[in-house]
Amino acid sequence: ATSAAAAIREWTDWRVRLTVPAWIPGVTGTFANSESDTGGGGPDRDIFEFDSSLRFALVGRIEARKGRWGVLVDAYGAKLTSDLRLAERGVSAVSGRISAMLGHAELNYCLGERWVRVGSRPTRLRAWAYAGARYNNVHLVVDRVLFIRPGRDIRREWFDPLVGLRFVWDLSRHLRVGVE
After folding, report:
1. Could you give the CA distance from residue 67 to residue 10 in angstroms, rounded to a whole number?
2. pTM of structure
3. What is the DSSP letter of 171?
4. Over the stretch 109-167, which tens digit does the pLDDT of each residue have?
5. Given its phi and psi angles, is residue 119 left (phi above 0), alpha (psi -120 to 50 degrees) or beta?
6. What whole-number distance in Å separates Cα of residue 55 and Cα of residue 72?
7. For the CA atoms of 141, 145, 148, 152, what is the dihedral angle to 10 degrees?
8. Helix (H, G, I), strand (E, B) or coil at 11
9. Pairing of the two strands 15-19 and 152-170
């Protein structure tokens, strides 16, 4: 029974946190000229119409900590399409798509912490050492630039090793400032 209680205590010492931020799905609008065709200050005339849409988004982070040790994994991904049209003719001036996926994983260790008083409230300052890797995948497609259809399709993929120090200042329960 003692070993089972120790195993349960060992598992419950882990703290896991999942973070998922919010995102905005799309932007549309126009660029206008304040002068009319007659040269007077008549009604606005649209020059360009702009449409940008977020077709896909993936953003999230999971952290697991036990004592001074921690593991962090996060991913960011998005697929955007954009179209800038000449308003009077409805002709697409610039259009294209971009998609990106960035991933990051690290093992970290808390080197120490110090409590600092700000006014009447104590705040915590911590130092972390970390090592890991970042994965980057970017895909850009340019369909049109003015009246030319370049048909450019560029894809890049690479890994970056990460080693460093991170300083985190907990200003409140929900607000942190970090420097790497």
Report:
1. 11
2. 0.61
3. -
4. 999 999 988 888 888 999 999 999 999 998 888 877 766 667 778 899 999 999 999 99
5. left
6. 27
7. -20
8. helix
9. unpaired
Cα 82 to Cα 96: distance, rounded to the nearest angstrom: 6
Find the length of the chain: 180
What's the pLDDT tens digit per position in 2-12? 566 665 555 56
Report which secondary-structure segment, H or E, holds 6.
helix 2-12
- In the chain, the DSSP E strands lie at 15-19, 26-33, 45-66, 69-86, 91-118, 121-145, 152-170, 176-179
For residues 73 and 61, what is the distance between their CA atoms, to the nearest angstrom? 6
Amino acid of residue 141: V
Query: Rounded CA gap, 130 and 71, in Å?
Result: 9
Find out whether 117 and 129 touch, Cβ atoms under 8 Å.
no
Query: 81-92 burial, b for 16+ CB within 10 Å, e for fewer?
Result: bebbbebeeeeb
Q: Which residues make beta-bridge pairs with 129?
A: 109, 165
